Amino acid sequence: MFLKLFSLFLIIPLVELYLLLKIGGIIGAFNTVLVIFITATIGAYLAKSQGFLVLRKIQEANSQGYMPGNELLHGLFVLIGGFALLTPGFLTDAIGFSMLIPQIREIYVGIAKETLRKKIERGDVQMQMYTNFRP
Predict the structure, then answer these.
(1) In angstroms, rounded to a whole number, what is the distance separating the alpha carbons of residues 87 and 17?
(2) Are the beta carbons of 40 and 85 closer than 8 angstroms?
(3) CB under 8 Å to 78, separation ≥6 — which residues?
């Protein structure tokens, strides 16, 4: 767990900084800032539109009477993708855009489902049924 947090909070920003400096040296500081601003704007729009699409699918699943597990995972990755696009940097932009494209997002969802399945089989995650639930 420590290694994952270490990479998240130290390695990724260092890679982002390196890419920003390298690309900024090639296309110039103003153009780099402009690209970052444009990707954040497009990312916010895509996250909003994809988020509404996923929300509609969740509502459809609920109205048909089944648990929208797949749809919730899609929603999670839309949220992460939108956040990644609002974070300045080229690596996070690439990851964020990939999470907002439904066909590529399906790969992320498949990996997440497989990871969850393995954790449940190993007993790392316990599933509990709540019988005293009151709406």
Answers:
(1) 12
(2) yes
(3) 47, 50, 51, 54, 99, 100, 105
Number of other residues whose CB lies within 10 A of the CB of residue 18: 13
pLDDT tens for each residue of the chain, 135 residues long: 788 888 788 888 899 999 999 999 999 999 999 999 999 899 889 999 999 999 999 999 989 988 888 999 999 999 999 999 888 899 999 999 999 999 999 999 999 999 988 988 888 766 555 444 444
Q: Residues 58, 45, 91, CA angle at the centre, nearest 5°?
A: 100
Residues 6+ apart with CB under 8 A from 47: 78, 79, 81, 82, 85, 100
Tell me the whole-structure pTM to 2 decimals.
0.81
4: exposed, middle or buried (Cβ count in 10 Å: 0-12, 13-18, 19+): exposed
Q: Rounded distance, CA 85 to CA 47, Å?
A: 9
